[in-house]
Amino acid sequence: MRKKIVAGNWKMNKTASDAESLVRALREELANFREADVVLCPPFTDLATVSRLIQGTHLDLGAQNMHYEKSGAFTGEISADMLRDLYCHYVILGHSERRQYFHEDDALVNRKVKAALASSLRPIVCVGETLEERDAGRVEEVVSTQVKGSLAGLSGKELLDTIVAYEPVWAIGTGRTATSDQAEDVHALIRKTLAEMASEAVAQGVRIQYGGSVKPGNAKELFSMPDIDGGLIGGASLDAHSFAEIVRAAAR
Ligand code: PGA
To answer: Which of 12, 163, 167, 239 is the pocket-test mutation for ligand 1 (most atoms within 8 Å of CB)?
Structure first.
């Protein structure tokens, strides 16, 4: 049985003092919540603050990006070991904003995924089609190519430590969510692709999140679909009450 996982992607929002208020509020909202894994992914500059504030709680920590090299002359970059050192256990990789604005492709994402796993970080690997691709009937081709490319060469065990996030680009920050049926179709396709890459057993064990305008009002329906194992939440994760409501929607 896959345990649901809800992650908050704060993107480039919240100073350290904003982060402190948000996490304090979340600690209260979610004090007794154990039914799903909950991961906060603040910007790099907030990781140490959030890490300290979630000690002893059931909240977990993730980053939004990392470099694939262990260390060296890569000005402005952050390594997996630096994240581990702050008790980070997850890292979002290949988000569509990274793909679009920073030209990350599947080959680069794949290097990062392997580096994350080698440092015992669980990658949350984002895939998803643009509106043009959907309108052109290319969802299956685009998403399966991204899954195969981003996760190429991973062992079954590594795949099981990986979380896939299906985030249709047209639904991110637009208020336009995929319907639960549209999302479920693509989640089932991703699971089929994983079965082809590894085995049916592995595919059944990998958690696949949905992301793109998830709100308290639509989370329950999305999370009730058979292949949707939680969510990657952007805008609504910046408010403690909204995020907590979404997390509670992941309880069975
Ligand atoms: P959104 O973002 O919830 O604001 O649509 C989701 C994401 O980009 O991870």
So the answer is: 167
Cα(134) to ligand 1 centroid in Å equals: 18
**139-158 pLDDT per residue, tens:** 999 999 999 999 999 999 99
Domain ranges of the chain: 5-249
**Cα angle for residues 37, 252, 180 (degrees, 5° grid):** 90
233 near 6, Cβ under 8 Å? yes
Non-local (6+) Cβ contacts of 156 within 8 A are 198, 199, 201, 202
The domain defined by 5-249 folds into TIM Barrel (3.20.20)
Candidates 90, 92, 233, 243: which one to mutate for ligand 1, based on the most atoms within 8 Å of Cβ? 233
Query: Looking at residues 174-189, what average pLDDT do you find?
Result: 94
* C-beta separation of 193 from 148 below 8 A: yes
Question: Whose CA is closest to 120, among 163, 82, 84, 164?
Answer: 84
The answer on pLDDT for 240 being more than 90 is: yes
- The model's pTM is 0.97
Q: What radius of gyration, in Å, describes the C-alpha atoms of the chain?
A: 17
58-110 pLDDT, tens digit each: 999 999 999 999 999 999 999 999 999 999 999 999 999 999 999 999 999 99
Ligand 1 atom at shortest distance from the alpha carbon of 236: 3
Residue 91, classed as helix, strand or coil, is strand
Ligand 1 centre from 213 Cα, in Å?
6
Task: Centre a 10 Å sphere on the Cβ of residue 94 and count the other Cβ atoms it contains.
Answer: 29
HEC-encoded secondary structure of 176-203: CCCCHHHHHHHHHHHHHHHHHHCCHHHH
